[in-house]
Amino acid sequence: MKKAIITGATGFIGSALTRFLLKEGVEVIALGRKKREEVDPLRLQDHPKLTYIQLDMAEISRLPKILEDKNLHFKDASFYHFAWRGKNVLSDLNVEEQYNNVSYSVEAFIVADMIGCKNFVHVGTMEEAFVEPYLNLDYHKYSHYNRHVIYGLAKKAARDFLKAISIEIETSLIIVTKSHVIGSNDSRDSFLLVTLQKILNDEKIEMTSGEQTFDTISIRDCVRAFKLIGEKGKKNAEYWIGSGKPRALKEYIEIMTTIYPPKYPVEFGKVAYSDVKLDRAVFSTKTLEEDLKFKCQISYEESLEELHQWLKYKTIQEA
């Protein structure tokens, strides 16, 4: 891969992929809503092969003209679509914003084809795995709840629309879902991050029994997988990026608390679990391994330590 376009390039994973590709000698166009001077320098540093373009996804149709005006030629580039937003946070319950994300994704795919990109890598979410069970739930009998379900449903809708129009578009569509990604530079309110932060702050940790299946992957392994997918991913393929070894959520917490002992014992079962449970097969990385020979190199323990060092650094910076 010689060139890439990345939407959502100032986010946790988008910025990590941008930095990795630049390190590998790839020329990158990074798209983001923020002004360049407002972007966290730890996420996006200046680089000779980096062009940052401030562009809201609502205006993504302007990209071909912008590239033409800047004399930037990105034919045969890989187009990575990470950009997604809620009203306040990524997966809030604002239906309008989630609906808009679907149309932005479709428009981005069309734009990638207009530019002449080799492929369009649409980034899904683990939350989509919950959508199918939710669509089949009888709400007269069950009271399951997942605060991410509207976000997950919008992601699934985008996936379905993109697959429907891909037969008329020359640019190859590749869809990627990922397990929970951990590492430095993360600012999301994800469960493992919040739990580790509570340990550092000597706070009590109350959670479910932790029997539900879960999976994590290091940010460094994650972006390495994305690079491989952009280079060699098959047309119409759907890949899952993960460890390939999912386990009970409780096991991840037990490993965490063994390495970083909390002030108070974790209270497993204190919070009732009111959601559907996913089968381990959902997290299968078989296609990724078979097509691209991908294997993780970073253990959960190593990625946890990177997150630990990041949180300590943040605490010092904010003091």
Walkthrough of the structure:
- The model has no long low-confidence stretch (mean pLDDT 92).
- The chain has helices at 12-23, 63-69, 95-115, 128-135, 149-165, 191-200, 219-232, 249-259, 286-292, 300-318; strands at 3-7, 27-32, 50-54, 78-81, 119-123, 172-178, 180-182, 206-207, 213-214, 216-218, 238-241, 247-248, 267-268.
- Strand 1 (3-7), helix 1 and strand 2 (27-32) form a beta-alpha-beta unit.
- Strands 3-2-1-4-5-6-11 form a 7-stranded parallel beta sheet, with helices on both faces. A two-stranded parallel ribbon has the order 7-10.
- Helix 1 crosses helix 7 (219-232).
- The chain contains 10 helices and 13 strands.
- It is globular, with a radius of gyration of 20 Å.
- It is an alpha/beta fold and 319 residues long.
Mean pLDDT: 92
Structural class: alpha/beta
Number of strands: 13
Provide the helix percentage. Answer: 25-40%
The largest sheet, given as strand count, sense and whether it forms a barrel, is:
7 strands, parallel
Q: How far apart are the first and last residues' alpha carbons, in Å?
A: 42 Å
Question: What is the global morphology?
Answer: globular
Tell me the radius of gyration: 20 Å
| Strand-residue proportion | 15-25%
Biggest β-sheet: strands ordered side by side in the sheet:
3-2-1-4-5-6-11
Spans of at least 5 consecutive residues whose pLDDT stays below 50 are none
Q: What's the tally of helices?
A: 10
List the helices and strands in order: EHEEHEHEHHEEHEEEHEEHEHH
